[in-house]
Every structure is written in structure tokens, then in C-alpha cells.
Task: structure prediction
Amino acid sequence: MAEDSDLEKTESATPRRIQKAREEGQVARSRELSTFALLSAGFFGVWMLSGTIGEHLETMLRGAFTFNHAVVFDTNRMLSGAGVAAREGLYAVLPVLAMTGVAALLAPMALGGWLFSTNVLEMKFNRLNPMEGLGRIFSWNGPIQLGMSLAKTLLVGLIGGMAVWHRRDEILGLVMQPSQRAFADAFHLVAVCCGTTVAGMFLIAALDVPYQLWSFYRKLRMTKEEVKRESRENDGDPQVKGRIRQQQRAMARRRMMSQVPKADVVVTNPTHFAVALQYTDGEMRAPKVIAKGVNLVAARIREIAAENNVPLLEAPPLARALYHNVDLNREIPGPLYNAVAQVLAWVYQLKRFREHGGDVPMEPTDLEVPPELDKGAVQDDEADEEADDALGKNRPAASAAGGQNARQAGGRADPAANAAADPAGPATSGDANRRDTPRRDNEGVSE
Result:
């Protein structure tokens, strides 16, 4: 069963899984790396402080082996000599002990870092389960650890044996040398043997560190279901998040639609795009876009504009340029000033016509729109439910042409009657009606 579980764990551990394991006291560790760090610190400490260590050891040994009959039976003098020997021995090894202690503290930083966790001290009865213990003993990790231990023993023994064998003549000749020379040569031989042993431990650590990292991350692998569950815990259920985003977009759309009645004009494509512009002289530096949309949303904007007697102007290049290049509640860019100024001038003329009568103002044509701003049509990738919310649960018939047709009809009627005309009044032009009504095959809006 354990093997089947391991086979199912095909996904790499997530950062949260690694952090959770660390909180539980599980990190990648290499005992061989720590051993190498301790041996290296001890070896280089002895090597650099060999002169000082030799002096202290010589003083210790001279005091320990120099005595006479009177000293032997004098307890105070013997205790004093023992104290001197202990002091000199401590002076000899204390620097090396300090260096190895620092190495022991710094070695974990190289792999896994320092870790203080009380979770490992908690009582867990599953650790007393003999079956799990046998499983750990006979797992694939056991033979590998045994092989590493045997390889370490053989390698260190082989290196040490070769170092002693190559210097066997020097070792045998130590008894024939004066004490000071013999002591120095012996110290040198010990240093050489220790150095070769450290080199061997480096090779072992270089092999053990990658293995421990691989083993640690392999043990933390997760199943696909665990990854999905963690993603839901971290980021929330994707379906719930999708509904929240949908509601947020719907609220934003409703706020945008509530601004359409305040617009001075709605520029259309005529069916694919609709952009509502507002400009208040003395309060705004330039006209700004207060609503925009494509396809179904554009149909809703045109409908609201018609219901509130907001002028509609067909200017496809300008509508596309405004939609693509201006965000909501942002002022129009400089290259579109001339075109929008002509549109607003027509709007003001239309307002005067409605109030005072006269000749019907001509809609502006040949509006100057830089080609680089007109990016053409786009595919409406908005979800159907968003369009339903923008247009209402029951998609009403588009009456975008009503406002414009009533405006055009007003040119042939009494100005006072035109001002009071129903914005959704009957159309006078079949072409205009077909032009402003959203396409049923593309939008799904029923007439």
C-alpha cells in the first residue's frame, strides 16, 4: 500500500508543503556534511596553531614526566603538577575546540538552515508502532544508508591506510630520533593523515548532499488531489472565486450603466461598439468616457441613451478608437480632440435646435481619427452571464435607433413637439433602424 501511495505522489512539493514540513521539524540534513565541517575546522585549526599547540603540549608532557622521589611522595606538589599539565593541555586544545564548535553551529546553515521546532518533542503514539518501525528498517532507504556508511568506512580507512603505508619508514624511524625532532615529525605525520582523511570526507559529503536533497523532496511529493486541495485552501474554491468576480463585474457594469443618462453623446459603430462621452465646460480639461461596451453591452448603452434622450452618433472609426484607447472615467487622448470637438459642437447645435427650433444640424462626417488608434473590430469574449446581467435577465428589444430616429424626425416637426417627443418614438428610416438594431445572429438580442 505504501508503494502504491508513493506511485500516486507524482507532483513536486509546493512551497506551503515545504514550509509545513519545516514547522514539523523536517528539513534536508546531511550528517556527512556536518562531519566534514567538523573535521575540516579541527584540521585547519591544528594546522594554523600547530606552533602554539606544540609548545603547550611540550610543557604539559615535560611537567608530567619530570619528577623525583621527593616529589612523588609530596601530595601538594603532585597535585600542583597535575594542575599545570591540565592547564597546558586545555590551552592546547581550547582553540581547536572553539573552531569546531563554530563549525558545528554553521554547518546546518549550508543545508536546511537552523531550525527550532517543538513539534518533534510532542508525544506521537504512531512512533511506537512496530509495523511502521519495521517498514522504515526494510524500506529502500535502509540499504542506501547502509551502503553509504560502508562506503564511508572503506574510503576513510583506505585513505588513512595508504597515508600510513607510504610513510611507514618515517614512522619506524621516529624512535631513533631526538625527542624534539621525533615529536615534530610525529605531529607532521598526524597532520598529513588528518588532511587526507578530510579530503576523503569531502568526497563523501559531495555525494551525500545531493542524495539527501533528492530524498527529502521525494518524500514530500504530493498527489494531484493534494495539490488541488491545497490550492483551494490557499486561494479559495475556483468556482466561488469565479462567482465573486462575476458579481464584481456585474456591479461595475451596473455602476457604468447608471452613468449613461449623464452623457452628452453616445458614439456608436453602430452595433458593435458604443462609447458614452461627457464634458462639462469649466470643470473638465477634456471630455471623458463614462461608459463603453461591445455587442450586448453596447446595445444596452444605446437603449439607455435612447430612453434618456441622449444623442446617438454613428462614427465607427471614432467609436473604435475611443473604446480601445480610453479607459472608463478617463479623459480622451490628444489625437482625438479634433474629432470629439466636432461631435460636441454638433451636440450643442442639436440642443439649441431642440430648444429654439430652426434648421436640423447636420451630423459631422469625415471625423479625423489617427489610423494607429483605430484597431478595428474585436471578438466579444465576455461570458453570456455577464451580458445577461448587463442587459437584464430578459433581454429587451434594442431601441437604439429610437432616439436618433426621433431626433431626425424632429427636423420635419414643430420644434416644441420635437423637444417633447418620445425618445423611443417610431423610426423614419428603415436603413437607420436596421443599422442601429443589434444583430440577432451574433448577439442573441430579440427584437
Summary: The chain is about 65% helix and 5% strand. The longest strand covers residues 288-294. Confidence is low (pLDDT under 50) at residues 382-447. Strands lie at 265-268, 273-278, 288-294, 312-314, 330-331.
